[in-house]
Amino acid sequence: MERALKLTAVAQAQRVAEEAREAHKAELKNRKRKMPEESESDTQNAHALDKYGRRLHLNRQSASAARVRREVYITALEGSLNAMETQNHTLEKTVEALRREKQELNRELEVLRLHMHYQQQQQQPQTVTKSEQVAALAAEEDRAPAVDAGSSSAAPENNSEACGFDGWVDLDKDEFAAMVAAYVDTNDLDPSLFLDRDLEDGPPAA
């Protein structure tokens, strides 16, 4: 790109120099037309000028035009190169500023992505894995009280056997009924578990 700009600057300088040369040649021609005509007393000198001086005069015009063209070309080229250097320096500053701005925008974008990810995590339902569920059930079972094997939840076929008294076969019917009532009251049991017919029958035989 820099080479293309330099070539463009050279071409522009050449064009400006050529225009200056043509303008200078036209000015010399106009100046010659405005010169006063030679008097008759200078006829001999005039012929000499026609033979030698006119050619010399044309050579001088060409040299002058070429010199003007060269000076204009150099001036135009220097101006173009200076403008290119200034523009290049300005572009370098602009590129550096854009690079810093890009880095800042990338940092802000990363922060926004993290914030959006955090919000999505908060909005999603909390799922519990199977292993976590098993661990929670195991912990719940550890905290639960042990069930007494002799509790009333598994009542025997004969409700009177739920009392679990040792030596109750030696009690009579009234003593057995009193013992059962005390057991029900102490253990906060349902009295319906012990039917009247069971109490009337007394303790089972040995």
TrEMBL record:
GO terms for molecular function: DNA-binding transcription factor activity. The keyword Cytoplasm does not apply. Keywords: Coiled coil. Residues 16-51, 137-166 are annotated as: Disordered. InterPro entries: bZIP, bZIP_sf. It holds the Pfam family bZIP_1. Residues 49-112 form the BZIP domain. Residues 74-115 form a coiled coil. Residues 16-29 have a biased composition (Basic and acidic residues). Residues 149-162 have a biased composition (Low complexity). This is BZIP domain-containing protein. The lineage of its organism: Eukaryota, Rhodophyta, Bangiophyceae, Porphyridiales, Porphyridiaceae.
